Automatic annotation (TrEMBL):
Domain tRNA/rRNA methyltransferase SpoU type, residue spans: 130-269
Limits of the MRM3-like substrate binding domain: 11-110
Taxonomic source organism: Intrasporangium oryzae NRRL B-24470
Keyword Magnesium applies: no
Protein name stated in the entry: rRNA methyltransferase
GO molecular function, one term: RNA binding
Stated family: Belongs to the class IV-like SAM-binding methyltransferase superfamily. RNA methyltransferase TrmH family.
Length: 278
């Protein structure tokens, strides 16, 4: 299969890639960007097939390393994509650096379908379902970090309630290290999420500094959804009033709260600890 070569940073096709950084374009096209060897590899492992991949072999690391970090062999991944008959577009270094959205690009950028499903399509099987709810979280980096934790903790689903950013935001993909494609995700209003929680008889645990109940004093071994609020305001009154348990993480310093991704990680791993012990 012949491959297109683009050397001009002003090529119209590259303008289309740049437009996918905008949420409106992602919603109109149903596509988003995935950059990097590790992220694209995880997407492929999750069954995602890119519509096209843009490569700059000049940026590849022949040894599969960046400093002391093993980053894998980009050429092997490219061969796999070619074997799957994914369209490959070769870019000059200047053209690739024009469309790259990360520091120190490794020469791989893919266009994939946006992830996410309707809330009603999320499966809740068995008595040990565990999900994470993020309400109004604004920063893509925090959403991505929560996805990485959710994947590591074996969470069954991550739900964005009243989302401020979308799952297809390239910075969510980047900060999740590709785990966005490994964990089922959905978006809905807070009211819809609460209806879903009630329908499936899920215990709702909401983090807040305004409670005396410690996060370690709750039973997480059944069907549980752990919810965190926005960075600025925390969980709103609707979510707090619907909570089965409101829990706080002990704070011994001057601040009264943690970064939202850190809070989610601490409570999720308390759930993991209890489930492993059980």
């Amino acid at each position: 299969m012949s491959e297109l070569l683009i050397t001009s940073a002003s090529n119209p096709r590259l303008k289309g890639l740049l437009s996918l950084r905008r949420r409106r374009t992602r919603e109109e096209t149903g596509q988003t960007l995935v950059e990097g060897y590790e992220e694209i590899g995880l997407a492929l492992s999750a069954g995602v097939r890119p519509s096209s991949v843009y490569v700059c072999e000049e940026l590849f690391s022949p040894a599969g390393r960046a400093g002391s970090q093993d980053i894998g062999h980009q050429a092997d991944l490219l061969a796999r994509l070619r074997g799957d008959r994914v369209e490959v577009v070769r870019l000059s270094r200047a053209a690739f650096e024009k469309v790259s959205y990360r520091e120190g690009p490794d020469g791989l950028l893919a266009v994939v379908d946006r992830v996410g499903m309707p809330l009603g399509d999320l499966r809740v099987d068995g008595p040990r379902h565990l999900s994470l709810v993020s309400q109004g979280v604004e920063k893509p980096g925090n959403l991505g970090a929560m996805l990485r934790t959710a994947d590591a903790a074996g969470v069954d689903a991550v739900i964005a309630a009243d989302p401020v950013t979308d799952w297809g935001n390239p910075n969510v993909v980047r900060s999740s290290k590709g785990t966005l494609f490994a964990v089922p995700v959905a978006s809905a209003t807070t009211a819809q999420v609460l209806d879903w929680v009630r329908e499936h008889e899920i215990t709702l645990v909401v983090t807040t500094p305004e409670t005396d109940l410690l996060h370690t004093d709750v039973d997480y071994t059944g069907r549980v959804a752990i919810a965190v609020g926005s960075e600025k305001h925390g969980a709103d009154s609707v979510l707090l009033e619907a909570a089965t348990h409101r829990v706080r993480i002990p704070m011994h310093g001057k601040a009264n709260s943690l970064n939202v991704a850190a809070s989610a990680a601490i409570v999720l791993y308390e759930a993991v600890r209890q489930r492993d012990a059980r």
